[in-house]
Amino acid sequence: MNFAILDGKIIERSEAKVDIEDRGYQFGDGVYEVIRIYNGKMFTAKQHLDRFYRSAESIGIVIPYTKELLTGMLNELVAKNNLGLGIIYMQITRGAAPRNHAFPAQDVLPALSAYTKEVGRPAENLESGVRTILTEDIRWLRCDIKSLNLLGNILAKQKASEVGCFEAIQHRGENVTEGSSSNVFIAQNGVVVTHPSDNFILKGITKEVILTLCKENGIAVEERVFTIKDLYDADEVFLSSTTAEVMPIIEIEGKAVHNGAPGPITKKLQELFIEAIEKECGAITKQTIK
Ligand SMILES: Cc1ncc(COP(=O)(O)O)c(C=O)c1O
Q1: Which residues contact 234 (CB under 8 A, 6 or more apart)?
Q2: Which residue in the list 9, 146, 229, 279 is annotated as catalytic?
Q3: What mean pLDDT comes out for the span 28-52?
Q4: CATH 3.40.50.800 for the 3-118 domain, yes or no
């Protein structure tokens, strides 16, 4: 049997149904999180929970559970679903109410749901690297909110997918922002550079882990805006996300990066990232690498 969380209760997933007028369904009026599970344990749970509450607060949704209660529910869900390696997907919407753009009355309860999914580590891509395209960033100006509204991201990812690429790197004019579902880093002359966490990008939890790992291990790192030219001139390029971890980029718009192979700084950060996972969730064995 598979279980899901709906409005504070763990129920059978097949019974988790939402109203046709749920504002998430009609407007994308809500926020979400994806949390990685290794060895049945949440990785960087606190950071994800903090971002979830921050995203909700920034659009005026009050999550009707404490972080402690919700964390407990999520742990229970993972255990009940017997999940070893995978993800939790969780979202909260402004609830169900007669369709009207303005917020509904105060007594309409936000709708929280969560489910788990088995997701392996992308071992082959992590080792060989991935190909990418470039695309103009057409999204709104609050990309720091992990909003359910992902049209700009979806259209960018589809463009990449149609030409067999893993990710679309977005740019506003000359400035590189982030991937459609990832943060983007370059390494030039031994310095790692990534876009500052402002309103133009999502402050990735994986990005934050990487910044910490750089600082702890003497790898020079800068959060500053960089350009498409910097991207093409870079010694190494990689992306980061909860499911993609530290993913080498070996091609941009058909042009090879680092002669088409992952570079040494990227590989070092991959090693350090695995260590960080293992510290929190236990050893990553061969069995957990699919
Ligand atoms: C637009 C965008 N940027 C960055 C990220 C990476 O964030 P995280 O490392 O928290 O998964 C994501 C993750 O899905 C994303 O959708």
Answers
A1: 186, 187, 188, 257
A2: 146
A3: 98
A4: no
Determine the Cα–Cα distance for residues 89 and 116; give it in Å rounded to an integer: 6
**Predicted confidence (pLDDT) per residue in 161-183, tens digit:** 999 999 999 999 999 999 999 99
SS3 262: coil
How far, in Å, CA of 214 to CA of 125, rounded? 22
CATH superfamily placement of domain 123-281: D-amino Acid Aminotransferase, subunit A, domain 2 (3.20.10.10)
> Are 88 and 77 spatial neighbours (Cβ–Cβ below 8 Å)?
yes
The model's confidence at residue 118, banded by pLDDT at 50, 70 and 90, is very high
Helix (H) or strand (E) holding 10, with range, is strand 9-12
The arithmetic mean of pLDDT across residues 61-84, rounded, is 98
The predicted model gives 7-15 an average pLDDT of: 96
Distance 202 CA to ligand 1 centre (A): 6
Is the shortest distance between the CB of 194 and ligand 1 below 6 Å? no
Cβ–ligand 1 distance for 181 under 6 Å, the answer yes
pLDDT score of 286: 55
- As a whole number of angstroms, the distance between CA 272 and CA 270 comes to 5
So where are the chain's domains?
3-118, 123-281
Concerning whether 17 is annotated as a catalytic residue, the answer is: no
Nearest alpha carbon, ligand 1 atom 14: 181
SS3 98: coil
